[in-house]
Design goal:
Elements lengths: L5 H18 L3 H25 L2 H20 L7 H24 L2 H20 L1 H7 L8
Helix pairs in contact: 2-3, 2-5, 3-4, 4-5
Length: about 140
């Protein structure tokens, strides 16, 4: 792909836009961004299964696994207590379900992960005002 092609220009714009969002975001918002990115990719991967786009599905699920790993890595295991341990175990379970879905084209497994992520995302969004009022460290229980 030529650096002057429309696709390259669009990719560069998206990269700059994404870096700008990350640079100006607080930790709580970054975790929400991770949730949204994972959910978006899983939904797109589920559509790819329906449409038989196996290569694209695999790329989306690979990206989802990477982002789930980032989400899991954002947990503060030293100070998060049982909540951090439980979330870590849940994220590990989701990782395994996504890998299973990739191998088996299992839409139900993706639906299960989407449901779990949606619930955690809603809870995380709900604590936003409280966490933002306390300052940094919001990603401790992400």
């Amino acid at each position: 792909m030529s650096p002057y092609s429309p696709q390259a220009k669009l990719a560069a714009y998206r990269s700059v836009d994404a870096h700008g969002i990350v640079a100006g975001a607080d930790p709580h918002s970054l975790v929400l961004t991770l949730f949204d990115a994972i959910i978006g990719r899983l939904m797109a991967a589920r559509a790819c299964i329906e449409q038989g786009q196996i290569a694209r599905k695999a790329g989306l699920l690979h990206s989802s696994v990477t982002l789930l790993g980032e989400l899991r890595g954002s947990l503060d295991m030293q100070n998060g207590g049982s909540l951090a341990r439980n979330l870590s175990d849940l994220y590990d379970y989701m990782l395994r379900r996504v890998l299973h879905a990739n191998v088996s084209n299992d839409q139900a497994a993706l639906g299960e992960v989407l449901g779990l992520l949606g619930e955690i995302r809603e809870a995380w969004a709900a604590i936003g005002p409280e966490v933002k009022g306390r300052g940094s460290g919001a990603a401790a229980a992400g």
